[in-house]
Specification:
8 strands, alpha/beta, 257 residues
Length: 257
Amino acid sequence: MWGDGFVSVGGKRLEYRCWGPEPSDGRAIVLMHEGLGCVALWRDFPQRLQEATGLPVMAYSRAGHGQSDAADLPRDLDWMTHEAVAIVPKVLAPFGITRPIYLGHSDGASIAAICASVHAHTEAAILVAPHFFTEEEGIAEIARVNAQFDDSDMAARMAKYHSDPVAMFRGWADVWLHPQFRAWQIESVLPQVGCPLLAMQGRQDQYGTLAQMEAVRRQVAHAQVEVLEDCQHVPHLEQPAATLALVLQFMHHNAFM
């Protein structure tokens, strides 16, 4: 099934796409998208990543995203932990990915961090603009986008990538803006990450401050932490060359290539 199509997990069809050869030793880079993302919105980054590393690359769209089946809404406030613990292993099993290198962006980076803390077979984790706790700055930005959504063309633009852009948006915004979600944090999982870890964030990230990077430095002594200049929340699209260079440096240093 290596290539592209749908994998069935928990009664839902989740779209996926793969780049490069099938995993011969169980190792592959697994991409986990942001809160408004999907397979297609990685754009050309997976292909560039595969060509640069020579490793298999696989991405999937979570339920409610891209062309995957609808998510069950409203989402539970601990949905990221559920995704990491209950969904991700079932997504990877049919592909023979037993030694994943997780590369996640934003909410996907948070999921990747949880995966790295609970799945002993994780080879490495690369966290791009991760969230480990809520911050007023990030919530304010989400509230701003939420207030504009109904009267903008956002849904129409998202419809090019998501089968139900309104439900997808609500599944993201409603959790982040839930009053009880202000107490959410997964910083406590970081000390359990024993694999090589790279964390990076744009200095001008509008969804989180560099306190997120300080959490990694504080909790994971062996982590490589990087801040990208002239970069907001999407380093792999805003600073693709710098992002890829950091990933390759990390992969070489840890003998993954």
